[in-house]
Automatic annotation (TrEMBL), chains A, B:
Reaction(s) catalysed by this chain's protein: 5-phospho-alpha-D-ribose 1-diphosphate + nicotinate + ATP + H2O = nicotinate beta-D-ribonucleotide + ADP + phosphate + diphosphate
Pfam families documented for this protein: NAPRTase_N
Gene Ontology molecular functions: nicotinamide phosphoribosyltransferase activity; nicotinate phosphoribosyltransferase activity
Function noted in UniProt: Catalyzes the first step in the biosynthesis of NAD from nicotinic acid, the ATP-dependent synthesis of beta-nicotinate D-ribonucleotide from nicotinate and 5-phospho-D-ribose 1-phosphate.
Family the entry assigns: Belongs to the NAPRTase family.
Protein name: Nicotinate phosphoribosyltransferase
One of the GO biological process terms: NAD+ biosynthetic process via the salvage pathway
Enzyme class: ligase
Length: 443, 443
């Protein structure tokens, strides 16, 4: 399998980084602060407007890329030629290899405002240069996973097919298919997501296929001859009723499915279901596509729809294309070797100093009640508290290798644990409150 | 320079493709329709809600990737193992190389609903398998370019800095920086965009840099010592007024700039300008950042701001993260070797059959009046009509090698040619109408 690793091996990911990470590195190498032990924390100050919960996406990809985040000769030469940093900094970069520890929420886990979803413990220098790459991946993949989760919640067990590759950057498309799968989508149209991550891929034909043949009958016959009767025929190129008749004439009642991609999908799905049943094609499925989002899926649940194909609104995060996560220094060593909490005081962008822990507080029925975030050591909690921090890297070695199947299961469980209100389509606040546990409050 | 080409060479771009492109290929190879000469057209049915014009982005990247769109052993083996297509199709793919012609709008050009921005002439098979990749690139890059163009229009000559890498997929970030540069941004924070495309990169320091030092004075001193007095100091970590005093004490009146990243930017910019002037630092620039978009930039034009740093809203297309372009079969050969126009009749997604030409109709002052789109041969037009179709590929060979500097100049010229209304921030219709010229209307 070619993986993102192969891509990165060719074009090192080291320069997928903001210029200022390296100038900060240079200035701190010079001042000595570069070597201070530091803790950086990734969190979202808020959820996108109206959303009830967030979904952690991208953790596995981040770990892949940190494992091989290296500055090779080509990268160093570029930085030298363009005078981004000085020679001592280039030398430091040439030897760079992440040696620290990382904890975080497991991929697929739900999260809330302030949840410390990814925590990097290293020197300042080692941690600061990972900021851009970590945020790029987690902001993108978490945004897609969150949108996907609402869609699969709305579909309530009916299969969802990811088909948005054409509406997003060509490599985002691969990550989006992966994130959607984690959040419950069944399949993707994206072949590279199949190769890189093993996401099941599906697809049959577009309108161009019908149009390149002399008529619809010829097109359907060609498709059935080549792909079998179990294929899905696209029936809205000209007239749906006519097309459905031809489809069943050509494939017989074993026809796998028909796809509707325009018009009033609910009305048409009902008409087509009746028509198929009347023709004896009672097992032929109806797949609908056409600018679907979680709201459209919700509305279509009333109809005889067997699968939803979702494109644009999935890959663009359904109105929230980024998860707004930030990567903040929350603790660092002082001159005496003591770790001290730090936080900026900017008016509208406060952060909370100190190393965090996090737990999901559950009631006696196992339903989530609150996101508990504390500073320092984890207290002996209520036995119903579910610990959320997982060890991902230890002393520079990756220790978490869970894959997308585990993340998918985890997401299903984590979502099922939320209050029922989380699955409503209506806009609202985070479905559980985030409670900061004061150190002094612990007994 | 490592380019997108190097990335693609490692992980072939051939699988950045929807599954159904290959099943259509298989079925048409079987029916014979695969070999029919065909014309596919990329266009947007509409502009994003409220937008006055679109901007063509990504053309150069598309041409790079088509040049090396090949199915290697690894890709073929994946398709064989997962049974996506049959052996004759795999054999056809193994020999695939685009042999056709491509025309389109030059990158950076403005466009309107229906503009045929990219036209592929080849066999059905050769053209259909490029659909996903072409759309992924053009939909993403055009969305970013369009948002960037509104921002640089609002900034009206003040420099704009692209710094959104952390809020989008790690490779989208590189393409976004490139698209923003084409639409008038001056610099980017993204180092890979510097390496791959020569976009100038800039950056100094984040809040973490201040926080890792014992106090602000120590941090500013470290930055000035390492990066020079010409650097830009971030002054909102604690108290802005205090920080500006320290900044000038440390760097003197030659201080390059200060950056504000929170609070009421307009009020603060005015206060800080007065403070800097009073301290004698009259040449020290004020850079503002913090969730800026074209509307915020517009409002800040009233203040003494020297540069805008834009992140999230740029890389997410400022509310329109995709350009909604489609790739449609509009003409194909029939059994007699004649080319015939084709179009689906789907209720809400009509397309117009036939090979298009396009011209920008200009008035006697050189201001755009209409987008003229016609079918067939280009008529002898008004001498003020500007022809828009450029030859990009001829008989499988790329003939256009214009780079991002040319695209940037082209965008500036094309935008300047639009009616003044195009640059207003208020939402509205496309600033010029799209007029379909009937073949019969030609004399």
């Amino acid at each position: 399998m070619t993986t993102e690793k192969d891509v990165a091996a060719a074009a090192s990911t080291a320069l997928l980084t903001d210029h200022y990470e390296l100038t900060m590195l240079q200035a701190t190498l010079n001042s000595g602060a570069a070597h201070r032990r530091s803790i950086f924390e990734v969190f979202a100050r808020r959820l996108p407007d109206g959303r009830r919960y967030g979904v952690v996406g991208g953790t596995g990809r981040v770990l892949d890329l940190i494992e091989q985040f290296r500055f090779g000769d080509a990268e160093l030469e570029h930085l030298r030629r363009t005078k981004v940093v000085d020679e001592p900094t280039l030398e430091w970069l040439a030897n760079y290899e992440f040696k620290g520890n990382i904890w975080g929420y497991a991929e697929g886990e739900t999260f809330f405002p302030g949840s410390p979803v990814f925590v990097v413990e290293s020197t300042f220098a080692e941690g600061v240069i990972l900021e851009t790459l970590v945020l790029s991946i987690m902001n993108h993949d978490s945004a897609i996973a969150a949108a996907a989760s609402r869609m699969t919640a709305a579909a309530d067990g009916r299969p969802c097919i990811e088909m948005g590759s054409r509406r997003t950057h060509e490599w985002s498309a691969v990550a989006a298919a992966r994130a959607a799968y984690i959040a419950g989508f069944d399949t993707t149209s994206n072949l590279e997501a199949g190769r890189s991550y093993g996401v099941p891929t599906k697809g049959t034909a577009a309108h161009a296929f019908t149009l390149v043949h002399d008529d619809e009958r010829e097109a359907f016959q060609a498709q059935v001859d080549s792909l079998g009767k179990d294929t899905t025929l696209l029936v809205d190129t000209y007239d749906v009723t006519n097309a459905v008749n031809i489809a069943v004439e050509v494939a017989g009642t074993e026809l796998g499915g028909v796809r509707l991609d325009s018009g009033d999908l609910l009305v048409q799905a009902r008409e087509v279901r009746k028509q198929l049943d009347d023709l004896g094609a009672t097992d032929t499925k109806i797949v609908v596509t056409s600018d679907l989002d979680e709201y459209a899926i919700s509305a279509l649940q009333a109809g005889p729809v067997d699968a939803y194909g979702v494109g644009t609104s999935l890959v663009t995060g359904s109105g929230a294309p980024t998860a707004s996560m930030v990567y903040k220094l929350v603790q660092r060593e002082d001159d005496n070797g003591q770790m001290v909490g730090v936080a900026k005081a900017s008016k509208d962008k406060k952060s909370v100093a100190g190393r965090k822990y996090a737990m999901r507080r559950l009631n006696t029925s196992g339903i989530a009640e609150a996101e508990i975030i504390g500073i320092g050591e984890i207290p002996d909690g209520d036995s119903n508290d579910r610990h959320l921090m997982v060890e991902l890297f230890k002393d520079g070695r990756r220790v978490d290798h869970s894959g997308i199947e585990e993340a998918r299961k985890r997401h299903e469980q984590s979502r099922a644990e939320l209050p029922a209100k989380a699955l409503q389509m209506s806009r609202g606040e985070a479905v559980i409150p985030t409670i900061y546990q004061d150190e002094s409050a612990r007994s």
